[in-house]
Write a structure and sequence with these properties.
This protein is an all-alpha fold and 155 residues long. It is built from five helices and two strands. It has a two-stranded antiparallel sheet with strand order 1-2.
């Protein structure tokens, strides 16, 4: 775990809930829409959580950190949705990898928001828990796509 600028601690992978999730198996089912994909559901939950935290940012961040954080958060779920309909493994994984990049960007924004004093400890911990859930399920979803012999890279 890392220490914030105020000496606070943001809970990371060592917490009980995250450890249990890492050991769970994500079962792929034949979904009919991206909304049924657990990775998308967790990413969407993170986006909704971010929108609730916008009130913690000062006015001078309205055109700086807030829109960057918002764009990255929305990008996680949006790229899962877009990748869902792609036919080839390579195309699917390309979009999911963009989601993973946006997810990592959001991890930094959570740390930054806490360290500069915008997020109180409880908010930083909650956001961290939500992004961890999204990261774990997205990683599992990518691994399942890689292993799925029914999806080929042939167009």
């Amino acid at each position: 775990a890392e220490r914030g600028g105020d000496g606070g601690r943001i809970r990371r992978q060592g917490d009980e809930k995250t450890r249990r999730q890492e050991n769970e198996t994500i079962v792929m089912v034949n979904s009919k829409t991206f909304r049924e994909v657990i990775a998308w559901q967790k990413a969407h939950a993170f986006v909704l959580a971010f929108y609730k935290t916008k009130k913690y940012f000062p006015e001078d961040e309205k055109y700086a950190l807030v829109p960057q954080f918002q764009r990255a958060a929305v990008s996680i779920a949006a790229n899962i949705a877009e990748g869902y309909k792609k036919v080839s493994k390579a195309d699917k994984l390309r979009f999911f990898n963009i989601s993973q990049g946006s997810l990592e960007e959001c991890r930094y924004y959570i740390i930054l928001s806490h360290d500069v004093g915008y997020y109180p400890q409880n908010v930083a911990n909650d956001m961290w828990a939500k992004i961890e859930e999204a990261a774990i399920t997205l990683h599992s979803y990518c691994e399942a796509i890689k292993a799925n012999k029914g999806i080929t890279d042939e167009e």
